[in-house]
Amino acid sequence: MILPSPYWVSYLEQIKLAGAEARFVETREDNDFKLTPAELEAAINSRTKLLILNSPSNPTGAVYSEIELEALGEVIIKHDITVISDEIYEKLIYDDTRHVSIASLSQELKERTVVINGVSKAYAMTGWRIGYAAATTSVASAMADLQSHSTSNPTSIAQAASTVALTGEQEPVSRMVAEYTRRRDYALDRLRAIPGITCTKPDGAFYLFPNVKNCFGKSFKGKIINNASDLAAILLDETQVAVVPGLAFGNDDYLRISYAISMDGLKEGLDRINSLISELK
């Protein structure tokens, strides 16, 4: 299975549980952490069965355009591989970005794609635990057979509420996106103003993924920073700010910062991050 990095933490463990082998493809910050057709082609071998694609991405916020997906689709069709397309953040996109599902591009890609989605992110229904998939009948039937022996079913109340969320008025989602845009822009400006920190502008989801490599080799109160995990631990211990080190997503040069928090909390957290980094020696 081909797994572009950075990746959501559960993908690797799910691959292991399936008894498969992950083939990592490290995407580049200067390409907004997007997999290219050339990188995909180079990663495919005779054993390749599947590609995991996450757009919008957790942790980077990258969103693939229709043109980019079409180019990847040519390679996918050429080698007859399946795609798991995780689109859980599809409604949380910013500016003029448009979400496109790779399954919508052609019948050939539709037949090779399993779309994963749910109500947790767009409708702030994380506790309701409702997700869904779209796939060919044969794949969906196999999924149902496996699922029926591992869990029972989501509650009828959660199903009814999710139906209303998906089919009802979407104006609350638009308001949420507008507020996330405001927080994203504020946090991005603050991070980019910190000397040595670089950060791509996310087009979706609600995370920033700053590169903190320039902090490595420095120290705070005698604690040496060798990687993002060290910096995250120091931030937590010294400032009580919780961030996720990039190691969890496959690259320990980065931190993941969520802006799914109040603006006041975001400002305070960034003040503390800025203060600590300015004191590194």
The name CATH uses for the topology of the largest domain is Aspartate Aminotransferase, domain 2
Using only C-alpha atoms, the radius of gyration works out to 20 Å
Global morphology:
globular
Q: Report the top-level CATH class of the largest domain.
A: Alpha Beta
Structure write-up:
There is one protein chain. The chain is α/β, with parallel strands linked by helices and 281 residues long. It is built from 9 helices and 11 strands. It is globular.
Summarize the structure.
Helices cover 38% and strands 14% of the residues. It has 281 residues and is an alpha/beta fold. The protein has two domains: 2-118, Aspartate Aminotransferase, domain 2 (3-Layer(aba) Sandwich); 172-278, Aspartate Aminotransferase, domain 1 (Alpha-Beta Complex), CATH 3.90.1150.10.
Question: What structural keywords apply?
Answer:
281 residues; alpha/beta; Aspartate Aminotransferase, domain 2; Aspartate Aminotransferase, domain 1; 2 domains; 4-stranded mixed sheet; 3-stranded antiparallel sheet; 9 helices; 11 strands; globular
How would the blueprint of this fold be written?
Elements: E1 2-5, H1 9-17, E2 23-26, H2 37-43, E3 50-54, H3 66-79, E4 82-86, H4 107-111, E5 113-118, E6 131-134, H5 137-147, H6 156-167, H7 171-192, E7 207-208, E8 219-220, E9 223-224, H8 228-239, E10 244-245, E11 255-258, H9 263-278
Parallel strand pairs: 1-2, 3-4, 4-5
Antiparallel strand pairs: 5-6, 7-11, 8-9, 10-11
Helix pairs in contact: 7-9
